[in-house]
């Protein structure tokens, strides 16, 4: 489970979560973040890699580094937390990353949710380049229900429109249950996450039909055609498109952040992180009457399994996590070498 020395013949290697987190922390610090931001981003990224959420694990590190080097984001930003109302917390992320802004406001948000039954956190002036489930799952681990949305960068054609406007705009939800890990789903409202298109292009793989269009608006299964002047489609036609619109409204209009089409990073070559907003809603289900929420959600899971369902959202991730905890996080040796170089260059 060690990061070095590497076996020169092995194409994969295994690292502990702690080793990977420390390496990532060194990279972020080396490229201009504060200690606290480096820690939050490193834990987020290592968790994604540990859980097999590859489109938002170490794959993202070169993008973080080029963005930090471009001056587009402030890696040392200190979020400004405002206690706005009994159930409302606002954070100006100060052109920094969204996760440190969430961390700064978290205890106030939880206190408010526990006293009022529900509270929301509106983050603006923020960059989110990660998976969304790490932002909600910890709430469910402490018995709360959480929902979060974040918008990204224009690359999705709204259903029935002619050109891209929306971001890939994920929605993540987490709820506690009595006999197992929280129920969590986290999904892009595009037919496929932009990160997965990049990964497919890198591997030379074709995409399933219905994911995107080329620069002429024609359906394509070629990821490069989508990335080079083409665009993605929403998942589920008009239904995913409506959800993506909702994400723009909640994550940007409601928080004071940019819509996915509102920022211009062209003067920051290397910038990759969308400068937008994020909304988190936390509910305390102990205010529910009758049986506990966690027992009710367990009953729903029981019935879903009885109906023949074999895989709940989150199951694959939790299985991969258990494997990583036992054998270490499996990584390509080549990717690890690239990370080590980024920690030193
Ligand atoms: P997927 O389509 O891979 O998965 C979406 C959800 O469905 C997950 O919770 C997954 O659980 C679950 N799931 C997948 N397949 C099944 C199945 N057969 N049966 C039951 N459940 C299933 O995710 P996306 O490609 O849509 O998104 C990938 C990531 O990209 C997300 O983490 C998202 O937050 C991130 N993203 C981030 C953006 C940003 O701006 N920061 C923008 C867009 C996306 P499991 O995880 O267990 O497989
Ligand atoms: O994978 O679509 C994506 C994405 C956008 C911003 C961060 N991830």
Q: How is the topology of this model organized?
A:
Elements: E1 12-15, H1 17-30, H2 35-50, H3 61-70, E2 80-85, E3 88-97, H4 98-116, E4 118-127, H5 133-141, E5 145-150, E6 171-175, E7 183-187, H6 194-203, E8 212-213, E9 219-220, H7 223-227, E10 231-232, H8 238-253, E11 275-283, H9 293-306, H10 315-327, E12 329-332, H11 333-344
The structure holds NADPH dihydro-nicotinamide-adenine-dinucleotide phosphate (NDP) and pyrrole-2-carboxylate.
Pyrrole-2-carboxylate is lined by residues 55, 129, 152, 168, 188, 193-195, 274.
Brief account:
The protein is α+β, with helices and mostly antiparallel strands and 345 residues long.
Description:
The structure is a single chain. This protein is of the alpha+beta class and about 350 residues long. Helices cover about 40% and strands about 20% of the residues. It contains eleven helices and twelve strands. It has helices at about 15-30, 35-50, 60-70, 100-115, 135-140, 195-205, 225, 240-255, 295-305, 315-325, 335-345; strands at about 10-15, 80-85, 90-95, 120-125, 145-150, 170-175, 185, 210-215, 220, 230, 275-285, 330. The chain has a seven-stranded mixed β-sheet with strand order 2-3-4-11-5-6-7, sandwiched between helices. Helix 1 packs across helix 2 (about 35-50) and helix 1 packs parallel to helix 11. The relative contact order is 0.18. The model is unreliable at about 1-10 (pLDDT under 50).
**Approximately what portion of the residues adopt beta-strand conformation?**
15-25%
Shape, principal axes of CA atoms: globular
Proportion of residues in helical segments? 40-55%
Task: Give the averaged pLDDT, no decimals.
Answer: 96
**Order of adjacent strands in the largest pleated sheet:** 2-3-4-11-5-6-7
Protein structure class: alpha+beta
- Work out the number of β strands: 12
Rg on CA atoms, Å: 20 Å
What is the helix/strand order? EHHHEEHEHEEEHEEHEHEHHEH
- State the helix count: 11
The biggest beta sheet is recorded as: 7 strands, mixed
**Associated small molecules:** NADPH dihydro-nicotinamide-adenine-dinucleotide phosphate, pyrrole-2-carboxylate
Cα(first) to Cα(last) distance is 24 Å
Q: Which spans of ≥5 residues are poorly predicted at pLDDT below 50? A: 1-8
């Amino acid at each position: 489970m060690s990061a070095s020395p590497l076996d020169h013949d092995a194409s994969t290697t295994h690292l502990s979560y702690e080793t990977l987190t420390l390496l990532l922390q060194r990279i972020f610090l080396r490229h201009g973040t504060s200690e606290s931001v480096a820690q939050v981003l490193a834990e987020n990224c290592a968790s994604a890699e540990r859980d097999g959420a590859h489109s938002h694990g170490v794959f993202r590190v070169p993008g973080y580094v080029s963005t930090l080097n471009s001056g587009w984001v402030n890696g040392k930003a200190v979020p400004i937390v405002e206690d706005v109302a009994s159930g409302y917390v606002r954070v100006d992320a100060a052109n920094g990353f969204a996760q440190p802004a969430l961390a700064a406001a978290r205890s106030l948000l939880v206190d408010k949710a526990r006293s009022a039954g529900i509270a929301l956190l509106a983050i603006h002036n923020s960059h989110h380049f990660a998976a969304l489930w790490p932002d909600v799952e910890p709430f469910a681990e402490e018995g709360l229900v959480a929902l979060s949305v974040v918008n990204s960068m224009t690359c999705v054609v709204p259903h029935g429109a002619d050109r891209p406007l929306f971001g890939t705009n994920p929605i993540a939800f987490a709820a506690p249950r009595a006999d197992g890990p929280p129920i969590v789903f986290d999904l892009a409202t595009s037919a496929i996450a932009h990160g997965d298109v990049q990964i497919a292009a890198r591997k030379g793989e074709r995409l399933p039909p219905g994911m995107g269009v080329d620069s002429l608006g024609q359906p394509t299964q070629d990821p490069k055609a989508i990335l080079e002047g083409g665009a993605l489609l929403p998942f589920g036609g008009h239904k995913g498109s409506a959800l993506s619109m909702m994400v723009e409204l909640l994550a940007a209009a409601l928080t004071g952040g940019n819509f996915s089409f509102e920022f211009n990073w062209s003067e920051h070559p290397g910038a990759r992180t969308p400068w937008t907003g994020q909304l988190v809603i936390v509910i305390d289900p102990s205010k529910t009457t009758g049986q506990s929420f966690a027992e009710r959600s367990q009953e729903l899971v029981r019935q879903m399994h009885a109906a023949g369902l074999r895989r709940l959202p989150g199951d694959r991730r939790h299985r991969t996590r258990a494997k990583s905890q036992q054998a270490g996080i499996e990584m390509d040796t080549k990717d690890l070498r690239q990370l080590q170089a980024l920690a030193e260059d």
